[in-house]
Write a structure and sequence with these properties.
mainly alpha, two-stranded antiparallel sheet, 4 helices, about 50% helix
């Protein structure tokens, strides 16, 4: 089966749909993350809740990076997350559609924004030095939150599905604007 060139109108609609999905998923992740953190701050301030097996809810204020690593590097971690958010915005709305699936990219973006909000809005030392609220404690794994979960799940799925995406080489030059960096799922058999 041959493929046809993608028209500029189709590219515009795909980009709009891609950005809406990305934004919707990111907004959902930020909302869930911030609501669960608010609940944890109110409910877990003076107690832990044991759930199942080793799973418990235990309030922790994390000033480091993922899983409590990187203590003392709060500003560096926050700047890297902020640069990621800026890059995704530039790439998605600057006319270049990122080659990653928008749902997964939205999960990562939402997680980054959720944890950045903690660093920016919670009491801390210096620029973006606030602590991230973590509360899901397996007792055999570092304590984490909904934003961390979204980032890790999306990252794992991206790694596992990366071979399914390939450089688009079946579009003629000029078929889409900036298509040289766009990856598409492979065509069926």
């Amino acid at each position: 089966m041959g493929s046809r060139a993608i028209t500029p109108t189709e590219t515009k609609h795909r980009s709009r749909r891609h950005n809406l999905v990305l934004l919707g998923v990111a907004a959902f992740v930020v909302a869930v993350d911030q609501l669960t953190k608010w609940w944890a701050l109110v409910t877990l301030d003076d107690r832990d809740i044991d759930l199942v097996w080793t799973l418990r809810l235990n309030l922790v204020h994390n000033t480091g990076a993922a899983f409590g690593l990187g203590q003392g590097l709060e500003a560096v971690i926050a700047v890297v997350a902020l640069l990621f958010v800026i890059f995704v915005a530039w790439a998605s709305w600057g006319g270049r559609r990122l080659s990653l699936p928008p749902v997964l990219l939205g999960m990562i973006l939402g997680g980054a924004i959720g944890n950045l909000a903690d660093r920016a809005l919670r009491t801390g030392d210096g620029f973006l030095g606030g602590a991230v609220v973590d509360f899901v404690d397996l007792q055999w794994w570092p304590v984490f939150n909904a934003a961390d979960s979204a980032i890790v799940v999306a990252g794992v799925i991206l790694v596992l599905t990366a071979p399914r995406y390939r450089q688009s080489d079946d579009e003629p030059d000029g078929a889409t604007s900036n298509s040289s960096t766009e990856l598409n799922p492979p065509h069926g058999p």
